Fold each of these.
Amino acid sequence: MSFRDILKMIVVLTIVSGVCGGGLAVVKMATAEQIEYQQIKNIKEPALKAILSGYDNDPVSDRKKIVTGKDKKGKDVVTTIFYAKKGGEVIAVAFEAYGGGFEGDIGIMIAIKMPDEVLDGIAATTHSETPSVGGVALNSPNFLDQFKGKPVGENFGLSSEGGVINAYSGATVSSVGASKAIKSGMEIYKKFKSEILG
Amino acid sequence: MSRIVKEFTKGLWDEIPPFRFVLGLCSVLAVTTSVSSAVGLGGGVVFVLIMSNVLVSVFRKIIPDKVRIAVFIVIIASGVIIVELVMQAYFYGLYQVLGIWIPLSVVNCVVLGRAEAFARKESVVLALADALGMGIGFTISLTVLAALREIIGVGTFFGISVMPEWYIGFPYIIKPPGAFVCLGIILGIMNVVSARLDAKKQQAA
């Protein structure tokens, strides 16, 4: 094999890979926004629909990202805020917050009614709790409805710790996880209120 | 011109993949549980086939022989990723149903097989005709197999109920072994029909 042949192989492979890589990058950029929309629509929308009501816009389109902290590696933690509007006025905001449960983090979508700043409703989005124990609690209206109508400044701890939430009996750890998620959500809301509503 | 027609139509009966060559069976057996996923994967494969056949044919004279498979795979993989991204962006439900089978069509023998056996030796127009024929043939095969399984298995076609109300379905057909049984039945029928056609041709001659 001559040197020329070897060189040709290297050049052709490099060019083909480079052009394909470049083309894929373009396609990726062109579809990124639509893919994000689809993912939110299919994964978060069921939770949003469950807790928001009386709006006439598409909360999945009316969303905003704000940086709400840093993780252990120093990367920004981004929270996506969804806005429910009626006649152009924001009537509620919703976002996801996390708290440690029995088996990893529990994700809770929290809706806060505007302008009186009371909880409109909450719904579990992602969790790995035991389906027959914690999973039941996180889908139970009895447990979730306790949060409804409570003002943002309320102590969302369990009643045994002086809070206002009754644990779902038999699923205390998951209840604590949900309560932690809501507490951290309230922290985010208070801290970034001006950004969220701005 | 007649050559173009011939290369196109061979993919529809004489060399219809996967029934004639029994290639690319993995995904064929996996996605034919419903007609909609079969058509979805078929469409993706048509796009990848056209793209790979055309590009391979265009560059057939400059691709060095020793690295041709690597070049083919890079081209095919790019096409598959484009399909995956577009499907994720515009057909999210289908994307979730097909899941791993979209990226796996990179190694679909039909696609690489056409690049290796046909496109690298023939002109662009013929390669395009071949890709169209083979792709449509592949989609038809998937659709027929999926229709058989969906109608017998759960009594629906494209998710629409087609069987009388008393029909409770035959879940075995939807399970993987049922796929083999259906495939075998179709191959058997095709062989019988082909044999009859050949016999007629000989008589005429």
Note: Residues 3-51 of chain A form the longest helix (49 residues).
Amino acid sequence: MFFGKQGSGVKQQMKNTGQRTRAKHGGSSKLGSSLKDNLDKLKTDLHNSSDLEIRPIGSQLAPEVPMTAVYIGELTDETTLNEYILRPLMSTILRTEARNEKLVHIILERVVEVGAAYITTDIDECIQRLLDGYCLLLVQGAACGLLIHISNMEGRQVSEPTAETVLRGPQQSFNENIGTNINLVRQIIRSPSLHIDSLQVGSETRTQVALLYLDDVAEPEIVNTIRSRIEALQISSVLESGYIESLIQDRIYTPFPTMKNTERPDAIAGGILEGQIAIMVDGSPFVLLAPVTLFQLFHTPEDYYNRFDIASFLRLIRFTAFFISMTLPALYIAVTTFHQEMLPTTLLITLAAQREGIPFPGLVEALLMELTFEVLREAGVRMPRAIGPAISIVGALVLGQAAVEAGIVSAGMVMVVSFTAICNFVIPQLNIAISARLIRFTFMLLAGVFGFIGIVSGILTVLIHLAGLESFGMPYMSPIAPFDWSKMKDNFIRAPMKYLLKQKAGNVINRRSKQE
Amino acid sequence: MKKRLLTLLCSLVMMLPLAGCWNRVEMNEIGIVTATALDWDNGKWVVSYQLVIPQAISSQSGGSSRGDAPVNVFSTEGTSMRKAIGDASREMSRKLYFAHNQIIVVSEAAAKKGISTILEIYMRNTEARETVSMFIAKGKARTLIEQLLPIEKIPGTAIKQLVKNEANSNSLYPDMTIYRILQDLLGPGQSTGIPQLMIAGSRQALNSLDSLKTTSTAAKIKFGDLAVLSGDKLKGWLSQEEAAGVMWLSNQIKRVTIPFNCSGNSEAPKSSSVIVAKAGAERKPELLPDGRIKMYLHVKAEGTLLEYTCADNLEDPKSLKQTEERIAEEIKSEMMKSWKAISRLETDIVGFGALINRTYPQQWKKLKQDWNTSFAAIEPEIDVHFKLVRIGFSNQNFKSIQKKARS
């Protein structure tokens, strides 16, 4: 019931394409000493792409030696190329007798005015770097090339977070550039022990994936698990961190996310400081955080910026809202169709009066309204912004008010559905909010068939499932199961900062002494 | 894994139609009964139901403006109660739903015949609740559930509120719910007292909405006497004055207003009153060697002075003491009056039997053979201690102060 089949098909497809691309790149892999051969090889490998620029250079350095700059025009920054590579090369007054490889070394050491540059002999690497926005400088007679970083990747500026807003706290979010994202985290954690592991995933996209963790706080086993799972991925493309999430998570068939994703640098920094591991994927502003417990998915960074009493209250509200958004329509169905005796008499009569003349049974009525709402919600996300007001009028007036007035659904049901929907928006993590929505439908069916017995057995099933989940070796339900009193300070409630900071510092010290 | 999942899913899906929505009842398929009446007529049980018409009550559908009556009363009859209820399906489109039944009114004739069949039904069925309050009516029980009450929309619920309010704020009549009646009738005393529900005022009934259109209603539903049941049959009635002391004797007083006069002369009007806020009785039986039974009742009560017409000044501890003694006497005389009445009826509705059972379990075995006669022969020793904890803002009554101001 709770298990979607999403993901497995995608994985299959990726495997196939992965094999194909590897076969293609199987040929020779070293640069030769002939400039023309090298250029031909590059052209073939890049399928004569029209944006591959080949610029011959005559340098004062060694006037008779032909040189060529190769780059992909759309990926590179013209100004850097002109100012710091071409101009120094062409107008240098330096002359040298060195030729071939030595000449390349001299160009690297004395001419090119760009920081990130190195020499390689591997043609595959050259192609990859060209696609990363490097400029490749080839010299006649040298069996190597000089790769110079002049990439200019288009992207957004760092902007305010859109999915996770806070009233108090830093107002910046990650963007699609992994460099910027690492930069944002580094700005917060200026510690030498902040470790960054770079990996590359996807045979076609060659997406850069970075693991960020504090060397002396994060559990090495978990770091190794995550790293080895990412390294073992055989896929052709990674377009978003969701790919990585669904491929490395512990269990596929569960509605509950075992990783947290956030676009807030402060949330990531907070997680890293507590020993979690951040997984950044180039091209996605959503950074993954693992391992997480179920309860951590209800925490927001703002909990730590507010006063502890307010933060604790809001946390409790969130947990309650989660429970309500899973069970309220089911409870309503069960009470109105099976257990009328549970309601106070006057409430029962009020509800009964609303239901007079409603043509559908309670379950059908509830499913109808819930589905309507889900459709409205999906429409709200997909539709172009300009149509927004029209949809909200149709949704609110036509479907809500008119449905009640026409006697299709009862007013009580509309209230229940609306409150359930609002409760769902309280949950800070979208992916756990969605799982509550899925489970809600199951519960509604159970309630419609078995009444409270159905709901109770549903809740038990979910609890059993949750107790069996793990997030990279950490029990999903901790610190409730297994119970850990010391962690309760920052679970359902948030204790005053005084006690929390002590605990956090304690963690670091413990791990350090363990290593020694 | 996949196969297992598929089997699991299949079996779950197959379960849904199997259960067939089990015992689902939609709310617009049930008729909510808020009051039941039981009459005994021509050797048959006549059961009447007060059915709520939700639309007429809910403000949303604007039913009351259409002038629909909020309830509908109808009766069915049969040789057994449950058969009569079963027959209701022949004349009612909806399934009768008793879980929200608030009160049950039993006619005198039916009570004389015996209420054991009602109790039997309540003990056996899950839908019926033991929190239903029972009343006895001197005439036909059905007329009582046909009445409308001013202010309230659902008469059944309103009467339930009425008795709750009475039990908490005046303690003259107990709220006799089915489970209390069961406790009493199955306890050592095997008897109980149930309030009478009556229509006071003119005989013009309150059974149409038009009768509520005036600012005062000609008739009113209220509590009358206290019916005394022994075994499961009605044995007699206690008048309101006689019933007053029963709550004291059975130690059930919560709050009660007691009127008294200054002189202690029983002829003088009782123009002062005190409200008892806390009361408790220590009841101790003693079996004397000669076979007589003594019942010691130490009542301790405290209360607040509500009105005071006596001339003396309460600043004086002596007169305060005197007043307290007066009130204690008043309580005692109420208790004696009730005692006389219940010993006349020879029914132990105050639970003395249970006390004796607890203190003298051995002797009780013999006593219970003929408990009703032995009960009537009990000699109660009542002593009451009353404490005035608050006398209010003034020490003297208004007239004395006025006199003092003049002089």
Note: The first strand of chain B starts at residue 30 and ends at 41.
Amino acid sequence: MMARQNRLLSVSDLVVQHRRAGRRPVRAVAGVSLDLGAGEVLGLVGESGCGKSSLARAVCGLTAPTGGEILFDGRPMRPLGVRRRAPALTGVQMVFQDPYGSLNPRRRVSAQIADGIRAGAERGERGATKLTPGALLVRVGLPEDLADRYPQELSGGQRQRVAIARAVAARPRLLVGDEPISALDASAQAQVARMMRALAVESGAGLLFISHDLSVVRLIADRIAVMYLGRIVETGPTAEVWENPRHPYTRALLAAIPHPDGAGRLPVELPGDASDAAAPPSGCRFHPRCPLAFEGCDREEPQLAADGVACRLYSS
Amino acid sequence: MTEANHAERTRPQRAEDQRDILDIVGLTVALPGRTGTGTTVLHGVDLRLKPGGIHGLAGESGSGKTMTGLAVMGLLPPGARARGRVLLDGEDLLSLSAHELGAVRGRVVSMVFQDPSTCLHPMLTIGHQLTDHLRHHLKIGRKEARGRAADLLGRVRIPSPAEALSRYPHEFSGGMRQRVAIAAALACEPKVVIADEPTTGLDVTIQAGVLRLLRGLCDELGLAILLVTHDLGVMSAIADEVSVLKHGRVVESGPRARVLTAPRHGYTRSLLEALPGRTAT
């Protein structure tokens, strides 16, 4: 948490609440702080419904935060409104989960990538005007002649690569991927994830990579943050979290990953479903499912400590 | 379910002595093409499945995994031409009429799809859907069907099954919906279940529960499962035998441990090497 103004992205005490007609609002993100430096890759993992996407959308300014602060380059991230966004903020680009929804079906691939190039040029990025859609397609591992096609002529994997090319075309300083690989074949997932890392790190951009798949995230992230029901429960350097997970939830996530080692080992089940974010459990949010919960876990809410774990097992 | 490693449990009576419940011999399927010549999507696929066993079918999208499953269900697309034999409990499905297939489908073989929200009707209660199914196939009364439906939900470990019957699909989480879909597939006590990517899209913690459930059903009920998945980790967790498909051909087939630790075909090796979860050992 040193010298916060030097960080590319700095999120502090972020709260994102979704209102629902006639029902209690859902607090999807309930007080999250995180930092990301230039050229750094942060992997954010957690089960569906834990608030990963809400966090990503707030970081990109697609949802207005209910509380807390998001600083991009030291300046507050303004939520997207009716008007065109300030050119400076096009330095944040997002790759969405579903390339069938994020690409315009009625425009050619080249036109959509050209949008990205234009956004980068308007921001005054050096070299942005030299980029061509064809060259960008090659960068993401596609043949140049795909530029004249329409999205419907492409496979899911190709579309996602086009979506990545479009985001990279704008020369982002921060790239946010919200489950960018979950719609791809297992054999393509690792490849596309590695490519996103290379594209971001090469250009000195930061990458916030969101996924429910820890086994892919650990390949590309410098640091991992594990989210449960709107809060970060553990964070640390990737190798440390992977080899020595400390929070019971992180341990459960790792134990549930099936390994293709041929041993016929059944993965360990984490019983129960994540609780409703509209009515989170008292105390530690994980305590109803926690195999190690003890006296007091249902009353005291642990905070993320300096060592990167929010669990009462580790508080003296 | 016990915590014991299922690989360590012995199941000799199933592995060796029993005859195959499903025996696919030289299955070749051609789909009508736009040009009229047709495209052959399966080339002489051989595959066997014993009662209580899980046979995993691996391969990338478009390799013919799903088509093989559909052939066993008698659900090949209209105009498809199939050659070879699909022997299900001794009966060749390819020689049956559409009407005869209807009696087999659901009763002897049933299917679990990838996305449970597409196979459950969103506007009917779980109980309605399960009992309809039971009453149609087993010709039993409403009350009896309801009792059996509750038993089924209990078997797939849905909490308070009797109440769950009057709830709608959207009231369940993704993992629970997949359990309901499995319950529906089990309704008429089939001998073979085709599970097409049954855990793709579920969180790993939830996936672990569904995998344990499927393995348990095989061990306890002697159910045989044809597991179609591109996830070799899932395959490694519960399959006994593994076949790898590429462009409609089985390029490698054998016991799970052998195929995943000492693959003989280059394609199997490349699939394994592309995986992130591959441990360095």
Note: The first strand of chain A starts at residue 9 and ends at 20.
